[in-house]
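Dataset card, provenance and construction

Sequences and ligand SMILES were collected as paired inputs. For each pair, a complete structure of the chain with the small molecule in place was predicted and serialized as structure tokens. The example below shows a pair involving zinc ion. Curators did not alter the output after generation; any descriptive sentences attached to a record were derived from the structure itself.
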Amino acid sequence: MARTLITSALPYINGIKHLGNLVGSQLPADLYARYRRARGDEVLFLCATDEHGTPAEIAAQKAGKPVAEYCTELHDIQAEIAAGFRLSFDHFGRSSSQPNHALTQHLATKLYEAGLIEVVEETQIYSETDGRFLPDRYIEGTCPNCGYDSARGDQCDNCTKQLDPTDLIEPHSTISGATDLEQRVTKHLYLKQSGMRDALNEWIDSKADWPVLTTSIAKKWLNDGDGLQDRGITRDLSWGVPVQFEGAPWEGMDGKVFYVWFDAPIEYIACGAEWAAKQGLDSEAWERWWRTDKGAEDVRYVQFMGKDNVPFHTLSFPVTMLGAGEPWKMVDYIKSFNYLNYDGGQFSTSRGRGVFMDQALSILPADYWRWWLLSHAPESSDSEFTWENFQQSVNKDLADVLGNFVSRITKFCRSKFSEAVPEGGEYGEQETALIADLTAKVSEYQSHMDAIDVRKGANALRAIWVAGNEYLQSAAPWSTFKEDPEKAAAQVRLGLNLIGLYARLSAPFIPDTAGKLQTALALPDLDWPEDVAGALDALKPGHSFVVPDNLFAKIDDEQREDWQEKFAGTRS
Ligand SMILES: [Zn+2]
């Protein structure tokens, strides 16, 4: 049995994510996990909340709660919303977990022993006005690389270059706006990434099948300008993985924690340990996914993320994994995404602009959103959510094509025959042609899904729905019935079997709808139709079904306008 390990970029803890975040990693990762499971793979699908760092501390302060308590609450909220979107994680963990603390400290020790971590004295930005050292994200200024005037201290959102706060031109505090920033000396750990440059180049060159978006970002960071820089991996915070611990190979690091970007990807592995512990399994259960000396040799590991996360996953995290000198399972394929914009601008968490995950579920079921987001996934370029496009896509693809097909065929069968697959008649030329056409279309759909081409996969699935609709339109059993009830029975039988085929093929995209169809048609399972002709002959005459409730409600213009106004900004 093929084994597929899938991780989604970890959503940060300080609030509910918007639909742009969802389609940039968790949702396509879920699509792929569901598809691989349907194809018979053994799948381990992991995600977690990324809980450390200053933004968590500040959000907790605002909420008037201890940071640990705040993170527990927000983790539970995010887990519940993820379940609402039917994200089928095997485990949704927490980067603040004990296994992640232990593993982060272990890997740091190994990196130090390998000469890849050094203790350095460095100057850090201190704000007199704010009375504290400022973490990278709370310093903004002009990017020395591209001139963008709102680059953050850790990264430029415009050119994606990894930065240090001292690189910024005209820096200021984003907490107070203060410009009276001064540099003070303090002690920190540095990850000597530059020493791994050749190894990284070689490793990335071996990934000939990676998307251009992924490799171009990685190569740019690796080789542009002065090339990959060494990087501070400790911060002056209280919330995080302590740098000074029993058995640590360094001293004088009390009061510091590992930088959130050092410990967060390690949580991918630790999340496996959390999963095993929760299942009551021993460490072998997760190590067979993560250690090549313990069974992970034959695992295919796929990561999903937005393009802003690519540098950390192609450079910094691989330095940790390769540099530790232990047989960790390295990623085989990185699927990265561009950005989803919102109605003529950007989604904005701070301004409450756009639709957030909880709001989305409060107005429509998950499948409506899953279908639109995945069929418009920002793969080759940024894409844009507009309410007009959403309305059109839901009404056409889901209601008119899929929903209408299911409704017409089941209702017609009930009225002219019964709520059972009718007997009589044979599949003729038209049916044979449809089956051949669908066999080719399903094969095309599979090849896009295998390649994780999400939009192409959605287009191919839509084409399969459309082919059934066109058949029904042209076969017109309601006309046939008047002259040749036997022939109409065969047409309806094929139509009912098409619904079964659609349930199986559509489940990765719209699992709730697939489940409804499975129940209505009393399908024993939603296994993948490896043989399309066989799948279209699976429901035999006499097999009972019930007419399902209307699958999709159309979005009318008034609703669309209401929502457009409601989500224009200032989330309350
Ligand atoms: Zn820049």
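Derived descriptions for this record:
DSSP finds 19 helices and 16 strands in the chain.
Residues 203 and 455 are 28 Å apart (CA to CA).
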